[in-house]
Amino acid sequence: MSETPRDEHLNRPMTPAAIALGLLVFALWGANNLAIKVAVGPAGTKAIPPLAAAGIRFSLGLVFVAGWAFHKRVSLVPRRGEWGGLILLALAFTVQIAALNLGQKLTSAVRGTVFLAAHPLFIGLCASFFVPGDRLTRRKLAGLATAFAGIVVTFAEGFHQPGGGLLGDAVVLSSAVMLGGRLVYLKLLTRRIPAPRLLVWQFVLSLPLFFLASAVWESGQWGVLTNRHIAAMLYQGLVVAGLCFAGNAWLYENFRASQIAGYTNTVPVWGVLWCWLLLGEPLTLWVLLGVALVTAGIALASGGTTEEQP
Predict the structure, then answer these.
(1) How far apart are CA 272 and CA 113, in angstroms?
(2) N- or C-end of the chain: fewer Cβ atoms within 10 A?
C-alpha cells in the first residue's frame, strides 16, 4: 500500500535546522533526571514529594506550551472525535511521569539518566509496528540489541552495591518503556491534532491527577524548601516541560520517529556529565560501559532507515 501525503510528511528526513534544534533540546533534557533528583531528594529524606513535583513541573510547563499554541494561532478547543485520544494520552503521560519521579527518588541521578535515555529503543520497536514507513531493519535490530545490552550492564551494577537502588532502577526503566510508547502515540495523534493542542491538554488533564494523588499519598512528605529545590523545579517546568516538550513534539510532528530517536543519543552523555559535574556522582565502569552501549546502540539504530528488511 502506498503512503499518503501525510505519511510522507511524517517520514521526512531531518533538515539542518531540525538537527540543531534536536541537539539543543536533548542537551537540555540531559539534565532532567538531575533536576528531578535535586527536587525530590534521596530515598528516605523529605523534600518535594515526587507526585507533587510532577504537578508543579507541568503547571509551569503549561504556561510555556499555552503561549506556544497562542503564538502558532492554534485553537485549543478539541474537535469532535479528539477527546478519546487526548484522555488516553494524558493517562499514559500521568503514569509515565509518576513512575519517573518515584523511581528517581529511589536511585541515583546518573543511573536514572541512563535508563530513561534508553527510551528510543522502545520508540524504534513501537514505531516499526504502528508508524507507516518506519521499518525495523537488521541495522535497527542490531542497534536496539546493543542499547539493550547497555541497560543490562547498568542494571547489573545495582547487584554489587549495598542498597543498590534496584527498585528505583526498575521503576525508571518502566517509565522509559512507557515514554517510548507514548511518544509514538503522540506522533500518530499529530496526524489529526496539532501538537500544541495535544501538549496543552496532556498537561491540563494530568494536573488534577498529580495533585489529587499527592494529596492522598504524600501527606507529611514535604521538607524545608531551599533555593536548590526551587531552581530544580523551575528548570524542569520552564526548560524541560516547556521548551523541550514543545521542541520534541514539533520534531515528531514533522520528521521520522526513528531518525529523531538517533539524536537522543546525546542525552545520556550530557546527563552523566551533568550528574558528575554538578552533583559529584561517581562515574563507575558499569555506568560508563552502560552509557557507551546505549549511545552506540541508539546511534546505530537511527541510521540506515531505508535499508534492507530484517
Answers:
(1) 7
(2) N
Residue 228 has pLDDT above 90, yes or no: yes
What is the rounded CA–CA span in Å between residue 226 and residue 230? Answer: 6
Which are the contacts of 267, defined by CB distance < 8 A and separation ≥ 6? 26, 29, 30, 113, 116, 117
Q: Sign of torsion, CA 208 212 215 217?
A: negative
The answer to whether residue 234 is domain-embedded is yes
* Count of all residues that appear for the chain in the document: 310
203 closest CA partner among 174, 236, 173: 236
3-state secondary structure of 125: helix
Helix (H) or strand (E) holding 148: helix 138-157
Domain that holds residue 237: 5-302
How many helices and strands (H and E) does the chain possess? 15, 0
Domains identified in the chain, total number:
1
Amino acid symbol at 16: P
Mean pLDDT, range 253-269, rounded to an integer:
74
- Crossing angle between the packed helical segments 109-117 and 166-189, to the nearest 10 degrees: 40
Does residue 159 fall inside a structural domain? Answer: yes
Question: pLDDT averaged over the chain?
Answer: 85
List the one residue out of 304, 286, 297, 238 whose CA is nearest residue 264: 297
pLDDT > 80? residue 129: no
pTM listed for this prediction:
0.83
Establish if 81 belongs to a structural domain: yes
Element (H, E) at 177: helix 166-189
Contacts of 143 (CB under 8 A, 6+ apart): 124, 296, 297, 298, 299, 300, 301, 302, 303
DSSP single-letter state for residue 284? -
In tens, the pLDDT along 201-222 reads: 999 999 999 999 999 999 889 9
Assigned domain for 13 exists:
yes
The string of DSSP letters for 60-80 reads HHHHHHHHHHHHTT---SPPT
